[in-house]
Design brief:
The chain contains 5 helices and no strands. It is mainly alpha-helical. The protein has one domain: Protein of unknown function DUF3243 (Cytochrome Bc1 Complex, Chain D, domain 2, Orthogonal Bundle), CATH 1.10.760. Helix 2 packs across helix 5. The radius of gyration is 12 Å and the shape is globular. This is DUF3243 domain-containing protein. Pfam families: DUF3243.
Length: 83
């Protein structure tokens, strides 16, 4: 996964592909956002940020409460889904 996380654009493309796959198999937007929240929680605990964008996201994640973190996760899904 470190290759995927080394460049933010690569991470966005990876996430976009996973969102598309989820939609293709019938996952709802809510389910995809919940999965994004779980992935964000995992990354926060286990992976050091690899670039400036990830460092900003981690800082926002760290100061946010659960609802704000879910918003961040949902916005990341929306960002890649609309690009």
């Amino acid at each position: 996964m470190s290759t995927v996380l080394s460049k933010f654009e690569t991470w966005k493309h990876f996430l976009k592909d996973r969102v598309a796959q989820g939609k293709k198999i019938g996952l709802t937007d809510e389910t995809i956002a919940n999965l994004a929240f779980e992935i964000g929680s995992f990354l926060d605990e286990k992976v050091d940020p690899q670039n400036d964008e990830e460092r900003v996201l981690k800082q926002l994640w760290d100061v946010g409460d659960e609802a704000e973190r879910k918003t961040i996760a949902g916005l990341m899904v929306k960002l890649v889904d609309k690009s």
